[in-house]
Amino acid sequence: MLKYQDPEAYYENYWQSSFFGSKEPNKDEQYRGNIILRFIEKYVVSSKGDEPGIKILDLGCGRGWLTNVLARYGNVIGIDPVRAAIMRARELHPSLSFHNGTAEDMLLKGGACQFDLIVSSEVIEHVVDDQKKNMMSSIYSLLKAGGFAILTTPRGEVWNDWKRVYTKEQPVEQWITESNLEELCRSVGFRVIDKDRIFIPWVSFNLMTRIATSRVFRRLMRYFPRSRMLSWLRYHCGLYQVIVLKRPL
Questions:
Q1: 199: confidence class by pLDDT, cuts 50, 70, 90
Q2: pTM
Q3: What does 191-233 look like in DSSP terms, one character per residue?
Q4: How far apart are CA 37 and CA 44, in angstroms?
Q5: Around Cβ 125, how many Cβ atoms within 10 Å?
Q6: Which residue ranges make up each domain of the chain?
Q7: pLDDT tens across 155-179, in order?
Q8: In Å, what is the CA distance from 209 to each residue of 13, 26, 43, 242?
Q9: Both ends of the chain: CA-CA distance in Å?
Q10: Please, which residues have CB within 8 angstroms of residue 102's CB and are 6 or more apart in sequence?
């Protein structure tokens, strides 16, 4: 796997690229965004009703595409430890609020118990393993009692298959398995209230995903959209995991 010695230089190029630097979400991000919004509607909106001023944190916001989407639900802040990401986010979304830093930084500035919802998409896999618990503890502390957190991250179970096919990686790539992520979240006090996987229909990295992304399979899904067997295969081949958490009252 390719390694990068200068993370800031890497991310300056990363957030200016055509695929990861645009104002609108790319195709991969759209799939993740759709399921995040589905869970927000199912749990957050349904529990808050018409309550005004829901406070939202996009943790690890990158260039801010998801921050922009989340803004429809309330008052949103985007935060990212990479300066190049925040500069790009401010350039693309000048009306939104972005800050350079981490969840831990927010806590040190007196930000405990202030958010109704924290979303962190494709972030925890770029946190070294011995700091993951600190990250989750900080998310817990930043939430109000009864607040929600939604995380998406690649499934650690498929890491070995993935790295045989895709040779580039970000400066830190330490994927976490579904069971370990759930255990980690419970260990800091969260209740796990829902989980799912995200299947990306053009990404293959092993035999099962090659079948699930084939033209024949896509045709079968059109003819039999409610087939349990085909739905199971898509779920089994999900690249990303999604977990919905709640801080107890």
A1: very high
A2: 0.93
A3: EEEEEEEE--TT---SHHHHHHTSHHHHHHHHH-TT-HHHHHH
A4: 10
A5: 21
A6: 7-200+240-246
A7: 999 999 999 998 778 889 999 999 9
A8: 30, 21, 31, 19
A9: 44
A10: 79, 81, 135, 138
State the pairing for strand pair 143-154/240-246: antiparallel
Query: What pLDDT shows up at residue 1?
Result: 47
Looking up tokens 């927010």 gives 106
Please name the amino acid found at residue 90: R
Position 50 confidence tier, pLDDT thresholds 50, 70, 90: low
The string of DSSP letters for 88-147 reads: HHHHH-TTSEEEES-HHHHHHTT-TT-EEEEEEES-GGGS-HHHHHHHHHHHHHHEEEEE
The dihedral region occupied by 122, where left means phi > 0, alpha psi between -120 and 50, and beta the remainder, is left
Cβ count near 249 (within 10 Å): 7
Q: Model confidence at 3, in pLDDT bands (50, 70, 90)?
A: low
CATH architecture group of domain 7-200+240-246? 3-Layer(aba) Sandwich (3.40)
Q: Are 197 and 208 in contact (CB under 8 A)?
A: no
Structure tokens at 10: 């890497």
Position 166 scores a pLDDT of: 87
